[in-house]
Amino acid sequence: MAVRACGLIIYRRLQSPPPSKVADGIEYLLLQTSYGTHHWTPPKGHVDPGEDDLQTAFRETQEEAGLQASQLTLIEGYKRELHYPAHGKPKTVIYWLAEVKDCNTEIKLSEEHQAFQWLKLEDACKFAEYEDMKQTLKEVHQFLCSKE
Ligand code: AMP
């Protein structure tokens, strides 16, 4: 059976972008792992017994980025599942999408990560080295732009 993990793709909107460039004011949060090849990823982690997937996504975001559920707005209508092999086992990761209410909210890392960045779509796609994650970020951006 696949290892199951859940997380949140977190974004913020920079204050007062020019009205024609609202989408340019969006930045995505990526964390750099302190393990393995130090790849960049949204916050996510394994589902604990008795927990539902969305609870896991919020708990992991709190543990890994220091963001409480009350500091976030879950965006309805977006959910994406990724499948990849991790450490020789199939892994499923389910992501929801959430906006940080205050774009200046402090990020507090756990020991699992060594750095974080808020990145515009193009840079986020460069740091997210895996093709499925790049596609997910592009899809999220389209989704947000279509809601403008
Ligand atoms: P993670 O799931 O981010 O904890 O990473 C576990 C392992 O899977 C690491 O070796 C990563 O480099 C690799 N990995 C992470 N994300 C992806 C992905 N989207 N596609 C393929 N491999 C990945």
UniProtKB/TrEMBL annotation:
UniProt cofactor(s): a divalent metal cation
Positions of the Nudix hydrolase domain: 1-141
CDD domains assigned to the protein according to its UniProt record, in alphabetical order: NUDIX_Ap4A_Nudt2 (cd03428)
Catalyzed chemical reaction(s): P(1),P(4)-bis(5'-guanosyl) tetraphosphate + H2O = GMP + GTP + 2 H(+); a 5'-end FAD-phospho-ribonucleoside in mRNA + H2O = a 5'-end phospho-adenosine-phospho-ribonucleoside in mRNA + FMN + 2 H(+); a 5'-end CoA-ribonucleoside in mRNA + H2O = a 5'-end phospho-adenosine-phospho-ribonucleoside in mRNA + (R)-4'-phosphopantetheine + 2 H(+)
Top EC class of this enzyme: hydrolase
Source domain of life: Eukaryota
SUPFAM superfamilies (UniProt xref): Nudix
EC number(s) stated in the UniProt entry for this protein: 3.6.1.17
Record's keyword terms, sorted: Hydrolase, Nucleotide-binding
GO molecular function, one term: bis(5'-nucleosyl)-tetraphosphatase (asymmetrical) activity
Pfam families: NUDIX (PF00293)
Gene3D superfamilies per record: Nucleoside Triphosphate Pyrophosphohydrolase
The keyword Hydrolase belongs to this UniProt entry's keyword annotation: yes
Biological process annotations from GO: AMP biosynthetic process; ATP biosynthetic process
Described function: Catalyzes the asymmetric hydrolysis of diadenosine 5',5'''-P1,P4-tetraphosphate (Ap4A) to yield AMP and ATP. Exhibits decapping activity towards FAD-capped RNAs and dpCoA-capped RNAs in vitro.
Family: Belongs to the Nudix hydrolase family.
The protein's name in its UniProt record: Bis(5'-nucleosyl)-tetraphosphatase [asymmetrical]
UniProt organism field: Galbula dea
Organism classification: Eukaryota, Metazoa, Chordata, Craniata, Vertebrata
